[in-house]
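Long-time lurker, first post. I've been practising inverse folding by hand and with some scripts of my own, and I keep getting stuck on stretches where the C-alpha cells seem ambiguous. Below is the full C-alpha cell string for one chain I'm working on. Before anyone asks, I'm not after the true native sequence, just a reasonable design that respects the backbone. If someone could post their per-position residues I'd love to compare against what I wrote down in my notebook.
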C-alpha cells in the first residue's frame, strides 16, 4: 500500500501543505477547528511525522533559490520577460510554505533546499554547480541533468509553426527570422523550428540576442536586401518592436508592406504602432508549475520527474496583414 504523504493530508483536510505542517509540528497559529480537521485527516490516512522526519525537516531552510539568466549579457531584458514568472513562483511557494531566494549565481554562503533556474544555458556553470550539489533542480526553459531535476517550458517550436502558418495563410512566402540568443533553449528551439518548417534563403535567417538593438540591426539588414522579405518572425517581442521601427524608417508601413510577428506578448506589444501580432506565453503558469515542481522534488523525492511543456497562443494584431 502506498504510504500517505503530506499532500494527501492537505487534500483530505482541504487546507494548504503549510497549514498541515504547522499543525503536525505543533505550531500555535492555527484555528482549533482547522487543527482538528487536519488531525482527523492525518489519522484517517495513517500519516504521522516520525522523529527521523522531524529531524530532517528541522534541517530544511524552506527556501528555494531562484537564478535568472543574464540573456546574453542583458539581465534587465530577462527580468522584463521573467518578472511575471518570478512573481508566480513567489506566490505559489508562499502558498506551499516556502520562500524564494533570488540569487545572482549559485555561489556564496546561502543555504536553500531546492533551486529554480530560469533562461540560462544548460552548460552554464550555475547549473553544473547546483547539479553537483545534488539539490532538487527545476529548469524553466533549461534542460537540467540528474535524477532530481524537472523541466517547465513553453512550446517554442509550436509557436513558430503557428506564426508561419498565420503568415502563409495571409499569402506571405518571403519570410525572414531574427533569432534570439542561441545559447538559450528558447532561442535555439525557435530557430530550429523556423528552419525545419520551410527552406529559408540564407540571407533570411539573421542572428540577434533578444534585445531591441539586435532586432533593429538585423531588421535593417533584411530591409536592405535586393529582395527583402514581406514578413519577419522575430524571436522576441523586443526584437519585433525594434523591427517595426526599422520598417517605418525605411519608408515602408509595418503591417501593410512588411508583416511582423513577435514572441512573448509583453505588455508593450499591444501598445505598439501598429499593435504587434505575437505568440503569447503563459508566464503565470510557467512560474506556478515551476514552484510546484520544486516542492514536489523536495517532499516526494520518489515521484516521477515532471516535464511540462505549456501550449502557446497566437495573438493577431495589426502588424500582420495580407501580402
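-- Answer (accepted) --
I ran through it position by position. Result:
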Amino acid at each position: 500500500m502506498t504510504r500517505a504523504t503530506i499532500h494527501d493530508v492537505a487534500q483530505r483536510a482541504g487546507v494548504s501543505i503549510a497549514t498541515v505542517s504547522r499543525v503536525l509540528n505543533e505550531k500555535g497559529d492555527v484555528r482549533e477547528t482547522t487543527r482538528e480537521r487536519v488531525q482527523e485527516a492525518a489519522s484517517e490516512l495513517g500519516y504521522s511525522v516520525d522523529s527521523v522526519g522531524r529531524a530532517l525537516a528541522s534541517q530544511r531552510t524552506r527556501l528555494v533559490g531562484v537564478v535568472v539568466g543574464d540573456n546574453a549579457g542583458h539581465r534587465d531584458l530577462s527580468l522584463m520577460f521573467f518578472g511575471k514568472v518570478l512573481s508566480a513562483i513567489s506566490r505559489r511557494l508562499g502558498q506551499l510554505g516556502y520562500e524564494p531566494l533570488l540569487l545572482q549565481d549559485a555561489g556564496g554562503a546561502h543555504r536553500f533546499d531546492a533551486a529554480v533556474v530560469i533562461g540560462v544555458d544548460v552548460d552554464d556553470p550555475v547549473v553544473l554547480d547546483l547539479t553537483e550539489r545534488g539539490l532538487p533542480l527545476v529548469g524553466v526553459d533549461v534542460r537540467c541533468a540528474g535524477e532530481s531535476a524537472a523541466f517547465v517550458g513553453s512550446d517554442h517550436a509550436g509557436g513558430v509553426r503557428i506564426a508561419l502558418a498565420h503568415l502563409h495563410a495571409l499569402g506571405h512566402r518571403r519570410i525572414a527570422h531574427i533569432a534570439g540568443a542561441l545559447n538559450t533553449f528558447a532561442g535555439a528551439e525557435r530557430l530550429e523550428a523556423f528552419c525545419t518548417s520551410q527552406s529559408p534563403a540564407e540571407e533570411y535567417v539573421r542572428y540577434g540576442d533578444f534585445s531591441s538593438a539586435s532586432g533593429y540591426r538585423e531588421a535593417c539588414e533584411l530591409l536592405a536586401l535586393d529582395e527583402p522579405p514581406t514578413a519577419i518572425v522575430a524571436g522576441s517581442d523586443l526584437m519585433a518592436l525594434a523591427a517595426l521601427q526599422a520598417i517605418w524608417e525605411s519608408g515602408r508601413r509595418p503591417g501593410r508592406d512588411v508583416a511582423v510577428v513577435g514572441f512573448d506578448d509583453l505588455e508593450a506589444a499591444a501598445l505598439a504602432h501598429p499593435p504587434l501580432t505575437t505568440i503569447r506565453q503563459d508566464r503565470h503558469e510557467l512560474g506556478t508549475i515551476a514552484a510546484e515542481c520544486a516542492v514536489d522534488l523536495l517532499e516526494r523525492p520518489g515521484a516521477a520527474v515532471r516535464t511540462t511543456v505549456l501550449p502557446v497562443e497566437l495573438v493577431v494584431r495589426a502588424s500582420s496583414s495580407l501580402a
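A couple of notes from the structure itself: The two ends are 63 Å apart (CA to CA). The CA atoms of residues 219 and 285 lie 32 Å apart. Happy to go over any region you disagree with.
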